User: What shape does this take?
Amino acid sequence: MTEPQALPQEVLTLYRIAREINSTLNLNARLRAILESTTRELTLKAASLRLRSPDGKTLSLVAAFGLSEAYLAKGPVEVENSPVDQAALQGKTVRLLDVLHDVGYQYPTEAAREGIQSVLVVPLRVRGRVTGVLRAYSAEPHRFTDKEEAFLLAVADLGALAIDNAQRHAALFKIAEAINSSLHLDTVLKAILEHTVTEMRLMAGSIRMLDVKSQKLLLMASYGLSERYLKKGAVMVGQSVIGQVVLTGEPVAISDVRQDSQLQYPAEAIHEGILSILSVPIRVKNRIIGALTVYSGEPYRFSLEEIDFLTAVAHLGGIAIENARLHEALEEQNKALKEDMTEWYQFQVMG
Assistant: This one.
């Protein structure tokens, strides 16, 4: 495919970056290529990309271009000690003309020693949430323009897309590994929930199975939910969000439980700190047997990509449940066979 030539240079660069994202399966190589193209387009010294740690206290390096190993090893980037990054994590862009004298840079002396004069920092958004920062570094005093800022924000979006795709594939691979690593259903389902909640950056998750006779949704596994919440009462098919999922076979998303009347236990959910919910059906051979539900501690509108991801996880969950059922049936057959053989042997001896 040839590049369109009648476009501004920065658009052509973004076009090349978008192609580079799909040119290799190696995430580090993709991100480094993105940063290299960015520094060349803006005629800068270097660029780096960092993601916020799960506890939110530090920013971990994901990729860098043009920075020395000594500078990268200077120490952890701590959010509480870096006002520049605090602002970026709030969705703001930050321009520093002189890192040595402008307030807010955590390692000004080390930056000056590296030959860094000016810095532009923009937020990195993954699925609408700020999860990291993209920095561009100049070796000379440089007043970054609105055009350069807009370009770097576009690059950040492309970088976020590459990271998101890689993390999704990695999460599904880990879940598949968990399914194959154990025949104990409890262990497998808990591992599925842990990987899913971590990947989606949510607070909790649960898996419930339909009991047709009682029309209750029985808890099979949970992650991140308190015992108090789990013991709130029976979850009924005709009265709950999860029940709606099981009945219709369609995902249900609630962006703010405080403004929704579908919950069976709204007060208990709010007390637990649950503010938004996404639930999808679990199927085995086209038969709905339960639901996988995840919970967020903040009002949140789940994207189509997140719904698709959770649906894929639920499919893997269905496979795990079916594998466990088949294994249990095989164990019962083996047990019955051993009993039959024992009886036959005793009959032969006594006969």
Summary: The chain is about 45% helix and 20% strand. The CA atoms of residues 280 and 310 lie 7 Å apart. Residues 1-7 have pLDDT under 50 and may be disordered. The chain has two domains: 9-166, 182-337.
